[in-house]
Amino acid sequence: MILAIDTSGEFAGLTLLDGEPLELVVHSPEGHAGQLIWNIDALLRRAGKTIHDVDCFAAASGPGSFTGIRVALSAAKGLAEATGKPMVAVSNLQALAFYGTATLRAPVIDARRGEIFGALYDRDLNLVEPETVAKFEPWYERLPAGVEIVCAGDVHQDEVTVRWIRLDA
Question: Are 8 and 60 in contact (CB under 8 A)?
Answer without folding.
Answer: yes
